[in-house]
What we know:
Distance between the termini: 40 Å
Number of helices: 8
Number of strands: 13
Oligomer: single chain
Radius of gyration: 18 Å
Order of helices and strands: HHEHHHEEEEEEEEHEEEEHH
Amino acid sequence: xxxxxxxxxxxxxxxxxxxxxxxxxxxxxxxxxxxxxxxxxxxxxxxxxxxxxxxxxxxxxxxxxxxxxxxxxxxxxxxxxxxxxxxxxxxxxxxxxxxxxxxxxxxxxxxxxxxxxxxxxxxxxxxxxxxxxxxxxxxxxxxxxxxxxxxxxxxxxxxxxxxxxxxxxxxxxxxxxxxxxxxxxxxxxxxxxxxxxxxxxxxxxxxxxxxxxxxxxxxxxxxxxxxxxxxxxxxxxxxxxxxxxxxxxxxxxxxxxxxxxxxxxxxxxxxxxxxxxxxxx
Length: 281
């Protein structure tokens, strides 16, 4: 279904720096998830510069394996799903609604994987940008509170839209993010367990890449995760986030291509660098 047989698995794992066990087991999932988040950038340059983001595996491999280019969640999740399928994991895709303090309901435009191992489910969310460094166990009752060693998360089951049961992933509030729960947490996204397929990704991807209502069709956005920090570029605002700290500065337009190269490791062609400058506001 996810074209795992077409994936150059060796090249993908080499790009991640992963040389561990390939058995479809929990430790493999944890190591693969972490390596993907730390190795593959989150960026929307193709949407902004070209208004076109193909999801076929050939294009994704050429773009995201063997170089520093990345993509947004539909690209990450499509490539990752091919790897999970090739490795023999049992899983299905889900779509979520981003919250992050949004005052209204947003469409289901965030792609993730739910992996099933030994009767237990794990949320493997590798395409958020500021993604958890580990999969998160999905438990009933009071849910799961966990840390990946740097960032803390809470995953709880409950009503996510009127009449719909699902899951909400929370992160600590503070700084730019408000306390929605009264005990220090903010919802980052919600999702239900309705399985999604490549054709469903195509629909959400078209909206994200082309709609004037999409936050990512015209505004440059890059993220790079390190084990201890997150670098984020929002148009001309460069931010560095660590647990409990937030630094930011506004860039001059002509600084942006160099920051894209130096901070995010993405070397633009002269043509793309010139086009990027026309997109900055």
